[in-house]
Amino acid sequence: MAELFTREQARAWLRANNLKTGKGIQDAFINEIKGVLQEALEEEMNNTLGYSKYDYTNKNNDNTRNGHTKKTVKSQFGKIELDIPRDADGEHEPIIVKKHQRTISSDLEGMIVSLFSQGLSNRDIESHMNKIYGLEVSAEMVTRITDKILPIAKEWQIRPLNELYPIIYLDGIVFNVNKDGQIVKKTAYVVFAVTIEGKKDILGIWIGEAESSKFWMGVLADLRNRGVKDLLICSVDGLKGFEEAIKASFPKAEIQKCVVHQIRNSTKFVSYKDRKVFCADMREIYTAANEEAGLAALDRFENKWGIKYSYAIKSWRDNWQYLSTFFKYPPEIRRIIYTTNAIENFNRQIRKITKTKSSFPTDDSLFKILYLIVFDASEKWTMPMREWGIIVNQLRVYFGERVDTYL
């Protein structure tokens, strides 16, 4: 990559600006840097929206500019005041000065990794760096730089874990990956956990074939091999065989099947004219005060809809053992285990970032970006879950020494 400027250009710049003192040079550098950064920030917004300011002929979406936010960042030359562009839909993610970033770095590799973590392909990054920052960066260089993440990511994947996790959520996300010249479906198996301190953590991401209970059994065995001795409650979707996979490694774990998944499956073939009343009747099952009341509501539900939608009733009956686990707990615990919303919110973030990728060239390229998404999310998970003080004391009542040992 070429020098930013030659010595002769630097001298000419000093003379042109009549700079003779260190303070004057520092202030001038700050102004120059501010100008470059501000221009790059505006160009990034153009790139997000797909059109430049006032260029309405190329506008092809409903998102618009929404003013600026003042921000002060530190550089090696001093503080810089910037105006950060905003968009109406809140979709814009600045790269050169990221959200919450307070220090400006000249680290090219860091900038490339940041772009990669936002879901840009190597070719996109090559174009982006040239268009916005005027830097010549080849797709091959991008690959070499982002490949440096892999050893770190793989070390993270085998790191030792805590002995106890009170709650974990298990879910899989499907991606297209190139395998021997063919695009195949691969599943990223994600384990989302809550620690004894109430903080969120991703214990690992495993890339495998289509989601299966057999693969999950291997994932859970890996958790045990990395030091996990006990899981209190596992919140899972409706995958057949999940219970056996969990019990094989953690026989004392409570299992809660996701009620939201059950609702979706139950309403899949319900006619539009019946749907509103059907859902209202079904709601009485999972909002009941206790399991006995829930079963009574299920009986009423079956009496009313059993002939017309027998498959829905059968599904509730067949899965009741693991759909009803949450009834034994107080509202604070019920709220966080009866659905897999916690992990699905994280998965939505993954989808948002990877939605432009029709496929990934290798398993490693998929794993790299998933690790970076985890890394970025983890930096925000600094506080315990809401009402965790209440929840952990409730868990102590229900699980006794299994919790007390780790407090």
What does this structure look like?
This protein has 407 residues and is α/β, with parallel strands linked by helices. The chain folds into 2 domains: 100 residues, no CATH class; 243 residues. Helices cover 50% and strands 17% of the residues. The chain is built from 17 helices and 7 strands. The strands form 2 sheets. The protein has a 5-stranded mixed sheet, with helices on both faces. Strand 3 and strand 4 form a beta hairpin. Helix 7 runs parallel beside helix 8 and helix 9 runs antiparallel to helix 12. The N terminus is likely disordered.
Name a few traits of the molecule.
2 domains, 5-stranded mixed beta sheet, two-stranded antiparallel ribbon, 17 helices, disordered N terminus
- Provide the spatial order of strands within the biggest beta sheet: 5-4-3-6-7
Q: SSE order, as H and E?
A: HHEEHHHHEEEHEHEHHHHHHHHH
Radius of gyration: 27 Å
Oligomer: single chain
The major sheet is characterized as: 5 strands, mixed
Write down the overall geometry: elongated
Count of individual domains: 2
What is the tally of beta strands? 7
Helix content: 40-55%
Number of helices: 17
Q: Ends: how far apart?
A: 54 Å
Strand content: 15-25%
Structural class designation: alpha/beta
If you average the pLDDT, what whole number results? 85
The low-pLDDT segments are 1-5
